[in-house]
């Protein structure tokens, strides 16, 4: 096979090229928290939030969420009516971690963080410290939340710094066990307030 070589002249002779497809992810809403707030809520139809059948997949990006209290986990919950965040969920939680000192590291399943038809917060973050070098960042993906036929699957992954100076990478999968459409998502620490952080909501278009 002959080797084809290109030079400046041959490249400059190109007059057109296939268009580069635009990104499939559309920004919908950003909530920025700069002082103590108990919850961060994204409810369809409120404050420009879209969370319906406009998109088949929704992604939340949680950036440097930081608790007011020390040593607290962060979680999320769903609503079907815009006010009660108590949807029944089943989840599975595992993580990897490493101490700053290097004293201990592991990959492990965390059954204590699972939900089995629970209606409370679904944990996605480690027990985050409230020091300035401690926070958590994560992604939560929810599939077809407006379906009235199937339960709603979701996945999250979080990197957080625990109060004991531990880097922890958390993986959660689960489903909201309802055939009613989900209409909103709430983020909240298990105790105390959100001291600061940014949460962004995106919709992913059909391919």
Report on the architecture of this protein.
There is one protein chain. With 207 residues, the protein is an all-beta fold. The protein has a single domain, classed as Jelly Rolls, CATH 2.60.120. Helix content is 2%, strand content 48%. The chain is built from one helix and 13 strands. Strands 1, 3, 5, 6, 7, 9, 10, 11 and 13 form a nine-stranded antiparallel beta sheet that branches. A hairpin with a 3-residue loop joins strand 10 and strand 11. The chain is globular and about 50 Å long. The chain starts with 7 loop residues before the first helix and ends with a strand. About 3% of the residues have low confidence.
Summarize the structure.
The protein has 207 residues and is mainly β.
Strand content: over 45%
Number of strands: 13
Low-confidence segments, given as residue ranges, are: 17-22
Mean pLDDT: 91
N-to-C order of helices and strands:
HEEEEEEEEEEEEE
Structural class: mainly beta
Largest beta-sheet characterization: 9 strands, antiparallel
CATH architecture: Sandwich
How far the N terminus sits from the C terminus, by CA atoms, comes to 37 Å
> Which fold name fills CATH's third level, the topology?
Jelly Rolls
Please count the helical segments.
Answer: 1
């Amino acid at each position: 096979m002959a080797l084809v070589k290109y030079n400046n002249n041959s490249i400059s002779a190109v007059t057109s090229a296939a268009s580069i497809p635009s990104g499939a992810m559309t920004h919908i809403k950003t909530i920025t928290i700069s002082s103590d707030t108990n919850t961060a809520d994204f409810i369809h139809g409120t404050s420009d939030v879209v969370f319906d059948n406009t998109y088949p997949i929704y992604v939340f990006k949680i950036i440097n969420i930081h608790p007011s209290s020390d040593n607290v986990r962060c979680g999320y919950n769903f609503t079907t009516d815009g006010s009660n965040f108590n949807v029944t969920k089943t989840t599975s939680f595992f993580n990897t971690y490493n101490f700053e000192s290097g004293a201990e590291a592991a990959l492990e399943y965390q059954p204590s963080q699972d939900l089995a038809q629970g209606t409370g917060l679904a944990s996605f973050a480690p027990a985050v410290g409230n020091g300035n070098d401690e926070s958590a960042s994560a992604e939560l993906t929810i599939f077809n939340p407006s379906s009235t036929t199937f339960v709603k699957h979701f996945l999250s992954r979080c990197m957080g710094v625990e109060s004991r100076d531990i880097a922890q990478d958390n993986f959660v999968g689960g489903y909201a066990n309802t055939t009613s459409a989900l209409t909103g998502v709430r983020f909240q620490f298990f105790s105390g307030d959100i001291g600061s952080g940014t949460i962004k909501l995106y919709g992913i278009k059909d391919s």
